[in-house]
Design goal:
By secondary structure, the chain is α+β, with helices and mostly antiparallel strands. The protein contains five helices and eight strands, in the order H-E-H-E-E-E-H-E-H-E-E-E-H. The two termini are 25 Å apart.
Length: 168
């Protein structure tokens, strides 16, 4: 979506990645803050837990992503790990996935974990378990990002309503 937005192929996108970076080129409006979850391989020792603290993930390998695809994602993971676990995450690279589902499958096959906003919990991914993060302040901001001055008529009214609304 971000690449399509930069190319002008779409007028707006919903994202939780890098709104601070994207706001240089686009309008970015915060919609909500949502809790985190960790995606784990199904055979992981933590897979049966009801919640997991970020500090418990200290010895895990984390999936990273290039800024061109998921702007600010790696930095967000580093911030979470430092703040809630007092460690710096060890990232592993996976081949550039075509979708989030493909990235989660690749991560599970590599024995790696990844942190995400809880709204991805509806995805049913083979061999992947999603467990909520116990650290309640480990949240993701959800933004609508739109083209400056190029947003088409049907989107104008909802965007104007969002910009005039206060979101916590």
């Amino acid at each position: 979506m971000i690449t399509a937005l930069w190319r002008g192929e779409i007028d707006l996108a919903l994202t939780n990645h890098g709104a601070d970076l994207l706001s240089r080129d686009f309008y970015a409006h915060k919609l909500a803050s949502v809790p985190s979850l960790v995606a784990l391989p199904i055979d992981h020792p933590f897979a049966s837990r009801k919640q997991i603290s970020i500090s418990a993930l200290q010895n895990e390998s984390f999936v990273g992503g290039p800024d061109s695809i998921v702007p600010g994602y790696n930095q967000k993971i580093i911030q979470f790990c430092r703040r809630f676990g007092k460690f710096r995450p060890r990232f592993v690279s996976i081949e550039a996935p075509a979708s989030l589902a493909e990235a989660l499958v690749s991560a599970a096959n590599e024995g790696a974990v990844s942190l995400h906003p809880i709204f991805v919990s509806h995805l049913s991914i083979p061999n992947v378990v999603m467990v909520p993060i116990a650290d309640k302040e480990a949240t993701w901001d959800l933004f609508v990002v739109s083209q400056r001055g190029k947003t088409s008529g049907p989107w104008r009214a909802p965007l104007d309503a969002m910009t005039s609304r206060q979101v916590s």
